[in-house]
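W.,

You were right to be curious about this one. When I first looked at the sequence I had no strong expectations either way, so I just let the prediction run and decided to look at it fresh. Below is the sequence, 66 residues in total, followed by the output.
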Amino acid sequence: MSKSQLEKDLEIKESFDQMLDDSYPDVKIGYATYTASEIVFNCDPIAYQIGLAEHEDYMREEGHIE
């Protein structure tokens, strides 16, 4: 059974978020701690969408997704 488009999109987003979070440390402000993916997603949504699209292209080129 093939994955739905929603499942594929979620897989790509989770992979991109994990890559960001593995590449940069968490940021602590007061008692709150934020991951790199949360910061980029909320503070610069355009950069997040561009990075996500580039990550999707990379995953396709590497054969991780169809």
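Here's what jumped out at me. The first helix runs from residue 5 to 23. And, maybe more interesting for your project: The helical segments are 5-23, 36-43, 45-61.

Coffee later to discuss?

I.
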